[in-house]
Design goal:
four-stranded antiparallel β-sheet; 11 strands; seven-stranded mixed β-sheet
Length: about 120
């Protein structure tokens, strides 16, 4: 399994930006698909973005054009650049690895990080 540790969360005003990072132990190059999920209070965990080892990406419609996912297999890191943040982006954000089919569904995730909180105020 891959051990995942997120960082970069915090509080920001609407329209601002945050950059989340995920440090992975082990060889992320062998992880076909990695991604980010989020969970707001009282809601289920939803997929935000995913990226396969070849760089192909998949985004939720709610973040397209605002968020960018990237990975550096040499440094074993996964990054989520979040721009034009909205209050509805407020959630705990989780790094995920080994996502079967690279689909944005939490039922297909094998490895999870502990999460990092993102709060966007209006």
């Amino acid at each position: 399994q891959v051990q995942l540790v997120e960082s970069g969360g915090g509080s920001v005003e609407a329209g601002g930006s945050l950059r989340l990072s995920c440090a992975a132990s082990g060889n992320t190059a062998s992880s076909y698909c990695m991604g980010w999920f989020r969970q707001a209070p009282g809601k289920g965990r939803e997929g935000v973005a995913a990226i396969d080892r070849y760089g192909s990406t998949n985004y939720a419609d709610t973040v397209k054009g605002r968020f960018t996912i990237s990975r550096d297999n040499a440094k074993n890191t996964l990054t989520l650049q979040m721009n034009s943040l909205k209050p509805e982006d407020t959630a705990m954000y989780y790094c995920a690895a080994e996502i079967w089919g690279c689909v944005l569904s939490d039922r297909y995730v094998r490895d999870w990080g502990q999460g990092t909180q993102v709060t966007v105020s209006s």
